[in-house]
Automatic annotation (TrEMBL):
Subcellular location: Mitochondrion
Occurrences of domain Metallo-beta-lactamase (ranges): 2-126
Species assigned in the record: Phoenix dactylifera
Record protein name field: persulfide dioxygenase
Organism ancestry: Eukaryota, Viridiplantae, Streptophyta, Embryophyta, Tracheophyta
CDD domains noted in UniProt: POD-like_MBL-fold
């Protein structure tokens, strides 16, 4: 289940599909990408007794989603949010790439993630600070970017000065894109 279409996320999909026959890939419709299952906000993806709800969280890319586990009433585990590159621990995804928007990211986090119960565990896709898990409540209190008002947030994002990844403008080869589809069907 991909949260967005950046190469550092989707590239593993083809390998997983080769290693585990029958695996179906998932990505949002809004990412304008290819996968076995195209999902959108409000969809529920069932995995046995667990389900993951899809929340649209654009901003890092146009098609970013966050996957949130069900309400857990009959589940022994806490609620979890898999935020991809939208909300990182004490940070967030950069918004200076194709389809990025700091305003959208701010709205996404505040309306779709910070409205979850405070004890929801937050599992992002990257961590640059030595953490592996946070909670919604912690990020609402300590996230140095998203605790600010929207204008301050936008200014922070405009001045991150992160290095521009060397490969970002390289076209994704067709065989890599096909990794998101059912390879058996293409053979
Ligand atoms: N080179 C730096 C930053 C790597 C980077 O740009 N990470 C992205 C996610 S992968 S597109 C990002 O959104 N970063 C946000 C941030 O605040 O760093 C490194 O490797 O540390």
């Amino acid at each position: 289940m991909n949260t967005h279409v950046h190469a550092d996320h989707i590239t593993g999909t083809g390998l997983i599909k080769d290693m585990v026959p029958g695996v179906k890939s998932v990505i949002s419709k809004a990412s304008h990408s290819k996968a076995d299952l195209l999902i959108e906000a409000g969809d529920k993806i069932c995995l046995g007794s667990l389900f993951l709800e899809v929340r649209a969280t654009p901003g890092h890319t146009l098609g970013c989603v966050t996957y949130v586990t069900g309400d857990g009433l009959d589940q022994p585990y806490p609620r979890m949010a898999f935020t991809g590159d939208t909300l990182l621990i004490r940070g967030c995804g950069r918004t200076d790439f194709q389809g990025g928007s700091s305003s959208q990211l701010y709205q996404s986090v505040h309306s779709q993630i910070f409205t979850l119960p405070k004890d929801t565990l937050v599992y992002p896709a990257h961590d640059y600070k030595g953490f592996t898990v946070s909670t919604v409540g912690e990020e609402m209190l300590y996230n140095p970017r998203l605790t600010k008002d929207e204008e301050t947030f936008k200014s922070i994002m405009e001045n991150l000065n992160l290095p521009y990844p060397k490969m970002i403008d390289v076209a994704v080869p067709a065989n890599m894109v096909c990794g998101l589809q059912d390879r058996a069907a293409k053979a």
